[in-house]
Amino acid sequence: MKNLLLFILLIGFTFSINAQEDTSSADYSKWQARFRVISVIPSPGDDISGADVDISTAFVPELDFTYFFTKNIAAELILATTKHDVELENGADLGHVWLLPPTLNLQYHFYAGDFKPYVGAGVNYTFFYGEDEGDVAGMDYENTFGFSLQAGIDYNLTDKWFLNFDIKKLFLSTDVDVDTGEGVLPVEVDINPLVIGLGVGMKF
């Protein structure tokens, strides 16, 4: 997946070098919105007593809004919520939890005809809610900040509509209090999801 991010990044810089048109003075839409279907693939660590933690992949819709400060520089707010099942490698069920991680990325957009690659980086604040305790007495996840990297490409269908492919990496860890029934076990759980999305967008 790291190679995919680097590949999209390389495409963007190649297009920016080869593009012949002057985009600094051209007209552009200040706002655009996208609707994507995303796959959220966590990359958990083994922070619970040396055990391997398994966090399920989720497929959900995502909505984002982008505002362009200039032709090339924009800010994107990403909104989606996902449900993940959590268990240990030994089969112990740690229930499930819902994540709401609004993410704000600062982006740089490149232009080459109908293609518009972009790269971005930013922050997110993840809310955990709807916890289910599974085989333990209780699970309490702490809301937390994280960081994100992003790369993607838009392809214009018309002056208003476009297709989008997007990939993001969120660097996200949270402190969890696991109530075993015999006491509370504080642990740090890495989530670090890879988010891959495909969708359609509109300029306005």
From TrEMBL:
Keywords: Signal. InterPro entries: OMP/PagP_B-barrel, OMPW. It comes from the Bacteria. One of its GO terms (biological process) is transmembrane transport. The keyword Signal applies. The keyword Signal applies. Pfam families: OmpW. Residues 1-19 form the signal peptide. SUPFAM superfamilies: OMPA-like (SSF56925). GO terms for cellular component: outer membrane. This is Outer membrane protein.
